[in-house]
Each structure stands twice: as C-alpha cells, then as structure tokens.
Design brief:
Chain B: Belongs to the transketolase family. Chain B: This is N-terminal subunit (TktA1). Chain B: Its cofactor is thiamine diphosphate. Chain B: InterPro entries: THDP-binding, Transketolase_N. Chain B: Keywords: Thiamine pyrophosphate. The structure holds two protein chains of two kinds. Chain A is about 40% helix and about 20% strand. By secondary structure, chain A is of the alpha/beta class. Chain A folds into two domains: about 160 residues, Rossmann fold, CATH 3.40.50.970; about 120 residues, 3-Layer(aba) Sandwich (Rossmann fold), CATH 3.40.50.920. In chain A, helix 1 packs parallel to helix 7. Chain A is globular. The longest helix of chain B has 25 residues. Chain B starts with a strand and ends with a helix. Chain B is built from ten helices and six strands; from the N terminus they run E-H-H-H-E-H-H-E-H-E-H-H-E-H-E-H. Chain B has a single domain, classed as Rossmann fold (3-Layer(aba) Sandwich), CATH 3.40.50.970. Chain B has a six-stranded parallel sheet with strand order 1-5-6-4-3-2, sandwiched between helices. The chains are: A alpha/beta, B alpha/beta. Chains A and B meet through helix 3 and helix 5 of A and helix 5 and helix 6 of B.
C-alpha cells in the first residue's frame, strides 16, 4: 500500500466550484454571494455561465450575509463563499441573527479555513470557527476532509433547507474517503477499526490520523480512526462506543481547542462514559510559518499523534 | 433634495382621513400593549407609526391570510425594538387577532420584544441588533430582480441606527446595483436612546450622504400621509429611493413627545389614560 504521504494531493476549492456549477444547471434557486473573492473561490467558470447568479458585494461581509438572507427570503438557496476568517469572524453577528436565528437555508462556505493562509498570520487564520459556529446550534457544522466529502456535503446542503456552515479546504491532502462511503450528516465515518485507542479528527488532519494509526499498529496498539466530518450535530453514538470499547480518545483539530471538536467530544464523554482523552489542536495565535509548519508547531503531526495515543493507553 | 409640494391636492382627502383614523387607533393599541406588558419602546413606536400605516394600509401588496405569498411586497422593520408598533399594525391588517396583542412579551409569547419570523408568519426578518434590516432588504430586492418578480421591498430604519456601518455597506451596494425596487424610510426623530443623534454622532447632512451613495432622496414630514404616499407610490426611477421622514419621537402624546427618556419608559395607569385621551381627541 502506498503511504498516504506519497499519494497525489488535492485541495477542495476546485470540486466546490465544479459541484456548484453542475448543481446550478439543474436548480435555478442556487446563487452564490461572495465578497470580492471570485478568483480565490475558483468561481470564474460559474460567473461565466451564470453571471446574474453570482452576487459579488465587494469587500463588505456584514452586507454579504444580509444580502444572502434577503435572497433566501426571495426563495433562493444562497451559497456564501468567503475566506473563513471574514465569514465567521467579521460577520459573526449577521451569521447569528440573519442566518441562524432567522433559520434561512443559507450555506456558508468558509474558504481556506484553519491556518491554511500560513504566513499571513492570525488575522487570516480561521481557527475559531468551530467554537463560534458550534455555539449557534441551528447551524449544521460540516468539516469535509477531501474532494468527495466536499461534493457530498454540498449536495446534502442544497436539499437540507436549513442553515449550514462548511469548511472548504485549501491545504492539499490525499483522498481518504472510500468511493463507496456515503456521507451521512451527524454520523462519523469509520475509517479504521481498532480496539485499544480511538483517534477522532476532521478535515485536513484525517490523513495524519490514518498514518498515525498505521504506526501505532506496528507498535502493537490497535487504533480506531473516525472522521468526524459533522461537528453539529455530533455523533454521540460513535463517541460513546469509542469511549466504552477502546481505552482512550485522542482528538485532533486544526482549530482552537476552546470549544472545538475535542470539546464537543468531551461533552459527550463526560456525560455518558468518562474516559481518558488527549485534545490536540491550536492553543493560541500562531507564530509566522507555512500552514504545514504551523500544524507541526501545534503538535498536529503524525509523531505527536502517535506519542499522545501511546501515552494515553500505554 | 426633492421637497414634496402640493401633494395634498393630488391625494384623496378621504383616503388620508382613513389613514389618520387608523394611525390613531394603532397608537392607542401601542400604548395599551406597552402599559400592559410594562415594557416596550413607545417613543420610537409613535414616531414610526404613520410610516407603517402608510405602507400597510396604503401602499403594500400582501395577503395577511397567506403571509408567504411569493409575490408579496417585503417589509423589514430594521429598528426591531419598535415591535409593538409593527404588531399593532399587523393585528389590524389581519395577521393575527387583535386580542392577542395582550400576549406582548409574556413568557413564551409569539410576540417577543423583537420580531421573530419563526413565531409569526409575515415577519420577513428577525431584527433587533441594529444595522441588519437594510442588507437583508437589499438581498430581497436583488432576489426580486433575479427572479423577475415585480414585488417591492421596504425597509424602515431608525436614524440612530445609521451609525452602524453595515447600513452603508448595504447603501453602497444598492446604489451600485441601481435597485429601483428598494425603498428605505428613515424615521428621523433625531433622538437615540441616550441623547440627540446630532450630539451623539451626528448624521447630518443625512440626505447628502444617501445621495452620494446613489439613492434618490426625499425629505418630508413623516407624519403627513399625503407626502409619504406620494413618494412611496412614485414610479421606479431606476435607483433605490430613501425617504428621510422627519418625525417626532413620541408623536401624538404631549408628555411623551420629543423626550429622550421616553425611548423605553413605560406609562403608568394614569399616563395611559391621559395618552388615550389625547390620541382619541386630537
């Protein structure tokens, strides 16, 4: 088997734009609202085919969300495409009031999330979105791992008729979702069975979790790997099973750990089946460095995942 | 600046008298509703009342028994704290029963302190935090033009809330898109919660600001139905329109008018009686 680190890698922006263009041909209700991000969101082809259905409000994120809400009021299904930090941060009150509280079927697409803008620094990182959006309980919070899950998530969101937030990854990773796997919102995707420890992760960290599991296997530790692509609603059943069937849980997320994936899982664990956990993620505003460097810097590398899991159940 | 002149002659006096009568009844409903709940924003309710009455009983197309009718004109009360005025108007328009106004702000009520479309069909947007209504209204107007529908969108704004930057993001975009199907009405009562707008963070020259953003701008007496209707019913000019409606906060009751403390003061039982007396005998 080829090691994941040697496989071809993909970012998810291309499949995002391609899927939306295909869906827009079949469904006239689909429109895109963006903030001067046509090029960076890969939307030039969409714009060429549907010039009227790409509403570019310019650099004005509060208005962007309000306009999306008005379009939803008018019967459209707006996809808001915007760099993650400015979508969840700059327009957070609009996301709360105009999208979540109004319960409008708007799909918020956070482009280049996490620390994928690397050297541009914390102003351009979107590590707080899991915590902030998770607090808006009417919004389904998705974190697809690869192109297949991104495509499946978009297809699901179009018919969901409720608010959705999803990360659209820029950081290139190999495909990890089996072609036959279905995308069930609120159900974790089991990628590897294991009985000693469970690794639960999401988004671009899925390949690292799988690599860590392979190393742990050689060390005699059987690691279960779950891709928790839905943070809200969280898959309680899979978490309780992990807590009761394995001896500990390691979570990893490209996000601040205060209120994120690890916190969501902890809430389920402490109320249902307390067990040992390690929560790996971003602890603070990042120093200068590439996206890849920063993942390693915060301990989101294969070596540290292996170490954390070994210590937890060793 | 377009000053509306000689409009009284153009408008039907009977129609104006009917709207005045409705407005008087609405103000009575508002003061009773707020006195019963012991909560509310009576000053801004009274300043925006004639604007709401003009829209709901003069200008807009809607079906209160079919509130989600796709062709309806959209109305958004951006100054959502003036919900008692909106609820009173909606009750009279038939969205719900008049006696249900008594549920205003009661526990679990569908008539909360700020409007909620998930509880009351006919509300287009859940407003409350200021500066949200106009962006949503811009989206409705863009949506109508994309869907090739003829409905119009009206947004009522407080003047104080124009200190929120999101309004100007929306104003800029509406001007850019030449949204002739969009109308903003600024309830220019010149008072915000704690003081006058001009002493807090001045808005003037307000008409110049809107004009600079590409809007057709009309400044008029926000308690004069003939002037309001004349602009509200004017044909599409290919630009968004804004009415700067000069109003009196607390309009209609002498001891409430133009007093900053009546932003959200609640009338006592005696004041309630006095207010109704003034509203029904003027």
């Amino acid at each position: 088997m080829t090691s994941l680190s040697q496989q071809e890698t993909f970012d998810c922006r291309q499949i995002f734009a391609q899927t939306l263009t295909e869906l827009a041909r079949q469904d006239e209700r689909i429109v895109i609202v963006c903030n001067d991000s046509v090029g960076s969101s890969n939307l030039n082809e969409f714009k060429k085919e549907f010039p009227d259905r790409l509403v570019n409000v310019g650099i004005a994120e509060q208005n962007m969300i309000g306009v999306a809400a008005g379009l939803a009021n008018s019967g459209f299904i707006p996809f808001v495409s915007c760099a993650g930090p400015f979508l969840s941060g700059r327009a957070l009150e609009q996301v709360k009031a105009d999208v979540a509280y109004n319960m409008y079927p708007i799909i918020l697409c956070a482009q280049s999330p996490g620390m994928s803008y690397g050297e541009l620094g914390p102003t351009h990182h979107s590590i707080e979105d899991f915590s902030w959006i998770r607090a808006l309980t009417d919004i389904t919070l998705l974190s697809p791992a690869d192109p297949k899950q991104t495509k499946d998530a978009i297809h699901w969101a179009v018919q969901a008729n409720k608010p959705v937030y999803m990360r659209i990854n820029r950081f290139k990773i190999p495909k990890t979702t089996p072609e036959t796997a279905s995308f069930e919102v609120g159900k974790a995707l089991l990628l590897k069975e294991g009985k000693d420890v469970t690794l639960i992760t999401t988004g671009i960290l899925v390949p690292r979790a799988l690599e860590a599991a392979a190393i742990l296997e050689k060390d005699g530790i059987s690691a279960r790997v779950l891709n928790m692509h839905t943070l809200n609603p969280i898959d309680k059943e899979a978490i309780i099973a992990a807590a009761s069937e394995t001896r500990g849980i390691v979570t990893m997320e490209e996000a601040i750990t205060t209120g994120g994936l690890g916190a969501a899982i902890s809430e389920v664990v402490v109320e249902n089946h307390p067990t040992k956990m390690r929560i790996l993620g971003v602890s603070h505003f990042a120093p200068t460095g590439s996206a890849s460097f920063l993942l390693d810097h915060f301990g989101l590398n294969v070596e540290n995942i292996v170490k954390s899991a070994s210590e937890l159940v060793g | 600046m377009t000053r509306i002149q000689e409009v009284l002659q153009k408008d039907d006096p009977e129609r104006i008298a009917k709207l005045s009568q409705i407005a008087s009844e609405i103000r009575v409903d508002i003061v009773n509703t707020i006195a019963a709940a012991k909560m509310g924003h009576i000053g801004g309710d009274f300043s925006v009342t004639d604007i709401l009455v003009s829209l709901f009983f003069g200008v807009m197309n809607y079906r209160s028994q079919d509130p989600n009718w796709a062709e309806r004109d959209r109305f958004i009360l951006s100054k959502g704290h003036c919900s008692a005025a909106l609820y009173s108007v909606m009750a009279k328009a038939g969205y719900f029963k008049h006696e249900q106004l008594g549920e205003f702000m009661k526990p679990l009520s569908f008539l909360g302190g700020h409007p909620n479309r998930r509880k009351l069909a006919g509300i287009e947007a859940n407003t409350g935090p200021l500066g949200h209504g106009l962006p949503i209204g811009v989206g409705c107007a863009v949506g109508a033009s994309l869907a090739k529908k003829s409905y119009r969108t009206f947004v009522a704004l407080g003047d104080g809330e124009l200190q929120e930057g999101s309004n100007w993001e929306a104003a800029m975009f509406a001007g850019h898109r030449k949204l002739g199907n969009l109308m903003a009405i600024v309830d220019r009562n010149r008072l915000q919660q704690g003081a006058g707008t001009e002493e807090t963070n001045s808005l003037d020259p307000l008409a110049d600001k809107w004009r600079a953003f590409g809007w057709d701008t009309y400044e008029l007496d926000g308690h004069n139905f003939a002037e309001l209707l004349n602009v509200m019913e004017a044909p599409d000019t290919g630009k968004p329109k804004v009415i700067i409606a000069n109003t009196i906060k607390g309009k209609g009751v002498s001891f409430i008018e133009n007093r900053v403390e009546w932003h959200h003061k609640v009338p006592s039982a005696e004041q309630n009686i006095q207010a109704i007396k003034e509203l029904t005998h003027s």
